Automatic annotation (TrEMBL):
PROSITE patterns on file: ZN2_CY6_FUNGAL_1, ZN2_CY6_FUNGAL_2
Native source species: Aspergillus puulaauensis
Protein name per its UniProtKB record: Zn(2)-C6 fungal-type domain-containing protein
InterPro entries: Fun_TF, Sterol_Uptake_Regulator, Zn2-C6_fun-type_DNA-bd_sf, Zn2Cys6_DnaBD
Record region (Disordered): 53-73
Keywords (A to Z) from UniProt: DNA-binding, Nucleus, Transcription, Transcription regulation
Domain spans labelled Zn(2)-C6 fungal-type: 19-49
Gene3D superfamilies per UniProt: Zn(2)-C6 fungal-type DNA-binding domain
């Protein structure tokens, strides 16, 4: 007969045996949704259920977690409960491994600038300790980076963790984005940048849409451009706070880029200018498109006329941020001029292939644009396709 102390040490949990065969094989919790559970739907695999399963459940109150994990939405707690190696009364060891991987590896891969790397390694986790959605975003990116490096037998586990932490961050931010921008601007900006890293770096299927959302602008691009509201009112404050290394580094690059004669980039964008003048009759639309091309021309002048300059996100990605809102609306409507201009942006994105989360992204962007563009305009993509080495162009044309 067990004594009182032994009874107190026993942990009970709720367990269902009705999950799908794929989740059972991966040893993760299934939500038992039919005909296809959420995890199988996310990873695009068949979802099958065994017949004749019975459900047996036992339950009792579980010990409460401490710290930020106590506030984690259901998606993360489910996956963390599947981790067999834990420190009693603490976080699963895999979560600790992800945080260690972030500080020793991942934080060094988000920029080439030492002071920016230091911010990601030391300051970002400090924000995460008091802001759950930032910590979940950090862990999501760390899990995604670990997925790139780990042996095959661990890859699915890393993807499950990455997806769960990403969803936990999204569930915390999406319904409260307006209030959070006012109250926790720096944390929201960190979240937005990390969401961009996650969305660009996760494994993609052939049918994924990265720039042309089925129901509007994709989430990563929405959050990235949404930062304009915060930055326009608080840019000076951010240059003195936690994010100062990023903003100061970006300001230096922006100053040089904006003061580089745009004429040096004209040789690369003259074709798209010809297209706009030939095919856009509305004067307001033409002016908006030319504005987007002018900004692109400056980036070309900065990066293409001096091969010794290393490409960084603070040089390439600002164009996404600076492009007029009307341009982004036209892009989502699959307007030919907007699609062709974005194809020229892919040439600059190609220069960021040295970053693991952007490697190959220019090819994915180009394929998405090519498939969205009416065949009569696809020939206008030939130069940017050749510039990035996108070899599918000749086959598809």
């Amino acid at each position: 007969m067990l004594g009182a102390s032994s009874m107190q040490g026993r942990r009970y949990h709720r367990k269902s045996r009705n999950g799908c065969m794929q989740c059972k094989k991966r040893k993760v919790k299934c939500d038992e949704r039919k005909p296809k559970c959420q995890k199988c739907e996310v990873y695009g695999v068949p979802c099958t259920y065994a017949t004749g399963d019975s459900t047996k459940t036992t339950s009792s109150p579980e010990p409460s977690s401490e710290g930020w994990a106590q506030k984690a939405p259901e998606g993360v707690s489910e996956i963390e409960s599947d981790c067999r190696s834990t420190i009693p009364g603490s976080l699963p060891l895999f979560t600790l491994e992800l945080l260690h991987h972030w500080t020793t590896e991942t934080s060094q891969t988000l920029s080439a600038e030492p002071e920016v790397q230091l911010m990601w390694r030391e300051q970002a986790p400090k924000v995460g300790f008091t802001t759950p959605f930032v910590m979940h975003s950090i862990l999501a990116v760390a899990a995604l980076h670990l997925y790139r490096l780990c042996p095959v037998h661990r890859k699915q586990e890393c993807l499950d963790q990455a997806h769960a932490h990403h969803m936990a961050a999204m569930q915390a931010v999406a319904p409260n984005i307006s209030n959070l921008m006012e109250e926790q601007g720096a944390a929201v900006i960190l979240f937005s940048w990390l969401t961009c890293v996650y969305s660009c770096g996760r494994p993609h299927t052939q049918n994924d849409t990265l720039i042309l959302g089925e129901s509007g602008t994709p989430e990563w691009l929405t959050f990235l451009r949404g930062n304009k509201v915060v930055l326009e009112s608080s840019r000076d404050m951010f240059r003195r706070g936690v994010l100062a290394p990023v903003f100061n580094n970006g300001a230096r690059h922006s100053y040089v880029r904006r003061n580089t004669p745009a004429i040096g980039g004209e040789q690369y964008v003259w074709r798209v200018r010809d297209f706009i003048m030939e095919h856009v009759s509305d004067s307001a639309d033409r002016e908006m498109y030319i504005e987007a091309v002018d900004s692109l021309s400056q980036s070309y002048a900065f990066l293409m006329t001096d091969v010794s300059r290393a490409a960084d996100t603070t040089v390439v990605m600002p164009w996404l941020f600076e492009a007029p809102d009307q341009f982004m609306d036209c892009l989502q409507r699959r307007s030919p001029p907007a699609l062709i201009i974005f194809a020229y942006f892919c040439v600059l994105v190609k220069k960021l292939d040295w970053m693991w989360w952007l490697e190959g992204l220019s090819d994915k962007f180009m394929a998405e644009i090519f498939n969205a563009l009416h065949p009569e305009y696809q020939e206008w993509l030939r130069w940017p396709s050749e510039a990035i080495g996108w070899t599918c162009f000749d086959v598809l044309v």
